[in-house]
Amino acid sequence: MRKLGLYMLLTLALASVLAGCGGKRENASTGSPLTGVVRVDGSSTVFPITEAVGEEFQHLHAGVRVTVGISGTGGGFKRFVLGETDINDASRPIKASEEATAAEHGISSIELPVAFDGLSVLVNPANTWVDHLTVDELKRVWQAGSTVKTWRDLRPEWPAETIALYGPDTDSGTFDYFTEVVTGEGSCRPDYTASADDNVLVTGIAGDRHALGYFGFAYYLENKDKLKLVPIDGGSGAGPVAPSQETINNGSYAPLSRPLFIYVGTAAAERPEIQAFVKFYIEQAGKLTAEVGYVALPAAAYELAWKRYAARTPGSLFGGEAAKSGKYTITQLLGM
Predict the structure, then answer these.
(1) In the CATH scheme, what is the homologous superfamily, with its name and number, of domain 26-116+258-334?
(2) What ranges make up the beta strands (E) of 161-310?
(3) What tens digit of pLDDT does each residue of 94-111 get?
């Protein structure tokens, strides 16, 4: 009987511990289980990070539903500035025009960098002639009014086969960033296969020997058996550099490395489920970012990002002149 009584006591104690560690974590302000909905939309590039964070968060908070859409950075901002979502995933800083529209609807946002990415230029594995491309060659291919039709138009020793182009659509922050740093015009030729779904681009490049395209580094890592990565010569004198965890982090993969963001509505930021989600996101971003193929920020950057959220500091640091100058690290910018 004593053994049975001891077993029952141990069982009850274990059940109590498990209940305390279970899926229904309490709302610290009320003591009740956290509930609600966290509505996220935006960048397909940032999607894998937010999806991973959302899944882990819901394991801890079963009463909170996290929905994550993929409308592209621009498409997501169109909803965000109207108050239709709480958080926007973004692969570029918010535009002044988007901030103005948000202000018209009484909305402001908190800008939080969460990871680094390196835009990856890809060809088909059967492409045996491309060993690297320069930024100038990328510009010649992608600029509006380009006369480049075949690979031979780029280099005379390459085949006279038509280049099949694949890239993000115009609602994509990846499109915006690429066209800004490559063509310098914010626009590009229209005769390419455009999609907000990076998996469509992967399939297109993997199925066409003469394809050329670009998208985020994580999607290359997921599909590297189907694709060939193209090193890029940024013109610094260092020669061609391929994106990797190291070259993206140290900035040597230039000019196609960039930070990724989430934007949180300041009104939404006051809701307990949003506060808990963003805190969890910042705490876990370094680990989960690496797991899905991107590059984590320095630990100090995450600490400063959380302080920015805790203070409810609105506006964009990364859309300003200081960020565009390239003189400051991400940690320095967040400390301004």
Answers:
(1) Periplasmic binding protein-like II (3.40.190.10)
(2) 164-168, 193-195, 211-215, 228-229, 232-233, 257-265
(3) 999 999 999 999 999 999
